[in-house]
Batch of 4 targets.
Target 1
Amino acid sequence: MLIRRALPSGALFAALLALAAALLPAAPASAAVACGVGYTVTNQWPGGFGAAVTLTNLGDPVAGWRLTWTFATGQSITQMWNATPTQSGTAVTAASLPYNANPATGAAATFGFNGGWTTANPVPASFAMNGVTCTGSAPTSSPTPTRSPTPTPTPGGCTVQPVNPTPQARRLLCYLYSQYGNHILSGQQESTWIGGPDYENTSFRERLDGAAALQQLKNAGAAVIWRPFHEAGGAWFWWSKEGGAQYNRLWRYMYDYFTNTKGLNNLIWLHGYNGSPQSAFYPGKQYVDIGGADTYAGDGNYDPQKAMYDATRAIVGTTVPIALHENGPIPDPDRLQSTGARWVLFGTWHGNHLTVSNSADHLRKVYGHSYVVTRDELPNLR
């Protein structure tokens, strides 16, 4: 089913998500380091396993963490999310990412990984954070550490750069990259569209200038996932009526005007196809941070939309996260995992598309599923 809609009044497009990401001060060099670690094997199969790790900061606030441990029987890390792995033989290091590098006293950072094993898979005997063994107890004496102070880390662990590289935008994009293939972020879209006979007659530049909320968000230190000219290739919207070359020219014009004229360098650019992605309607990786496609599959159809995902991936490449940027029925999380449909987020349209296309039982399953990230589970990206 194809839904044809106009866009919200006063602007040409919709922003999916805005997140403030103000910088936090670094911890003092003399901070006391203490920690506790929870390590759980969440799943195991012949030759492989999954694990979840919770690192609780029991000392002073830290400016970046590195958790180290040793695998006793030669296990190996094959994939990690919410941290960056390094392994040399049996020695493993998991390093923080920009969005979870500064846990306050009593706060926890969580990450997970998949790994391989051969003869056995015991839990590591001990862990250390920034060189200090995690005992599970808070410091009881002088806060002066007995080791050299840990330097404030550079924003390492994530090499991706958004096309508009503010620190806030980079943190947000790094978080999306960390979730890509490991979880799917939940979302819902609303519409406040009120049509009018002068809509198409208003000059394009005036409508660009009308996006004042983006400037306000930039001034507030927020990064925005920005989704202009959605359902690319669908001739029901005017921006696709004249073919791919004109569509790409329009996208690049907006990008140049927003970035170079308006200085809106806090945007994460999401390029969204309709249900039949066409390579002719792709402005190029230098103008796109996230790919995407959409479909309204029919009430109760919880298909993972793997074919549409693969078609989008064939155009945008293997290194760009891909969003299900609009949907009615929400794909079944178990089938997303089993088929490898690695959508990084979904955006369920409001009204009946949420409450009729999805049963109450399915909604409970989706929003309670460990693969789905809900609003309350988002990390602090400040």
Target 2
Amino acid sequence: HLHSRLLVTNIHEASHCIYTLACRSIYGKVIFYASDLTLYLYDILRHMHPLEKKFSIKTYSHIEEIIADILATALLGPAYPIAFFGSYLLKSYPISTHPPEIIRVYLTLKYVEETLNITNNTISSILYRTKDYIENKISEENHYIKTYYSIVNSEKFQKLLMEKIAKALIEEQYNEEDFEQSYEIYKILEQSNSQKLRKLERQMYDQVFTPLHLISAIWIKRIMEPRLTREENSFEIYIFRHTLHILNSLRAWLEGFIKIVT
């Protein structure tokens, strides 16, 4: 669980770098377009948020966190909202620099729902039930959460975030083909066959799959795998068996990539 959570967290942090680069780089229209949209989004949230002054909320920081979540979802697909939901407490109180986790999970689930057609019934069902749970939870929450939900669910906010900013910053978003590749890796991990795991390392070296496919596959495996209760088949042991091959596969991809560019 630890390595799968940390790998997904790294994608979120990398998305902060994408956002910062887009806002500060000299490479033309995408940067200025994304920056203008972000500032406009900031103005909407600032004027609509009646609780900002009361709780000293740094609205611009909130927006950057939301954008980083959406970018991470655009890169990882359904694995990101599920990983987020499964790894963090859904706190209800205001935090100066971060939006409520329940709002962040909701937005990433909504993004997947609107941009990705998942044909796998199990994954689709889990995404639907998770979103339904989140929306029901929000309806029972305090005024702060309900207010935040009404803001991010507005047509203006949704259009800017989903259609403009995400598409401007990520040209090749996670799609059905990426999901199929992630699912193929998931089946390799599920079989736990040393020969196939070594083959996966070679495929990563040959750039057949990317680290994003591998990280997504790890969480698809976690989604599809029932919690094991017997001590001899503990969940922690089962995951640990794959750790070395996962790290070797990531290293192999990097070595293959360096070979190509040099």
Target 3
Amino acid sequence: MKMFDFEEERLKQEIVKLGAKRVLIQLPEGLKSEAPRLAKIVEKAGAFPIVSADPCYGACDLATSEAESLGADLIVHYGHAKLLKYEKVPTIYIEARATISVTEAIGKALLLMENWHKIGLATTVQHVQTIDEAKEMLIRAGKTVMVGDTGRLNYPGQVVGCDYSNAKSIAEDVEAFLFIGGGRFHALGLALSTLKPTVVADPYEKRAYLIDEEVQKVQKQRWASIQEAQKAKTFAVLVGLKPGQKRLEEALTIRDKLE
């Protein structure tokens, strides 16, 4: 999978440096096909590889309990930037930066942004290295460009599924957002959290498109759910138990408001 940098040399060096003997490899669904190859690299570095087959939805979804249960002394977490302040099991994060060009997709996105002058930029960790290139392309096209940075995430302009604070910090100052990346999940979250028109520049499919119709569909579904919930007399407040998702105090606050 040449579209991403798996930092194979760093992987070997970290295992040797830490003296790891049993390594748990955790990958998001789109990168799992690389697991056998990465396992062989771990083995050659002198450690026993274990690949987590569970779904992985982000750096908040760290396989800590699995690693402890299996006696792993190192987690190698692929595809996300560090999010948790502390890890119970030593963890290295390999972001799997994309190595493909974004130029063509951004060029096509510019055609969809002719009516907007002030543009906000956002992307996932796979493409944060392209922010400067994208900014230059937009400026050459006569746009005013903003990149948000609240300090909560690792990189300016970065968004993750549960945190769009960088984008929200500039939402009032831009007319629309350009999202660089594949898929619709993060672009949809960006549009819903900022309530701004959002154009997707997809470098994998080399195309650009507006995501407004899907935003409207989700908004209608949400309002329908709210109206249905108004009929309920009993509510359950659910708390996720994953390391980066457990928010018991917030759940208790919601319970108090419901009462």
Target 4
Amino acid sequence: MTIQRVRSKSAKTKALLANPEMALHVPQTRPMNRQSVREMLQQYGMIYVKPVNGTFGRGVIRLEWRANRAHPYWFQSSLRQYRFRTFEAMYAKLLTVKRTQSYLAQQGIELLRHEDRRFDFRVMVQRSPQGIWETTGIIGRLAHPRKIVTNYHSGGTPMPAETLLLPYLGDEPALQAYRGELEALGVEVARTLEQRFPRLQEIGIDVAVDSELNPWILEVNTLPDPYLFRKLNDPAIFRRIYEYAVAYGRFPRKRRKLAPK
């Protein structure tokens, strides 16, 4: 059976919003246009715009509106920052900076920080050889000091989730309890998406955690990179991820070499 891949962020967001419990964890997301950007900036003060079919954090732009600034409108694309006195000036420049494809506007979530660098998490969820959804790995992604995205391919640093979360949770029992919440969230995301996309076998969920420790589903990748988990010190995590991927056919089974006669 072919493994189902879903590129459209809009389609995946719509599927998640069909589940009222999941909808609580999905930032408001709208097609990007002049009206949606203006209204969402006024409502949230900070938003992200991103390609509908983008990957690796490429093309993502962070926008802010702060009424008390001399230049109230600001956005950053990669390392470049822009400031404007008016919304119209900002939006006109935004159209020249963004990629030509369709974009979404998403409610901005202020990420937690480690050593003044933003971080989020990649939650890996796979169908087990027994056909049951399991969260098989959670890894932290620490943003490049001068970038707005945390993706490894955009300069982010993979780190153990425990290292990033412990200062906010205080002790080991709270840390393990919170990890359990993220694992359960991952499984529920997979079950929800499966209703719309029945041939899914694996997903990678980008999860932001805000200052009140609420988890937010930023994005779901249906072709997640398993090799990111080789950056963790525990090799058993990647080994299980790889074994599951072989079981559902993403990677071929290794043939054992026959001993010479």
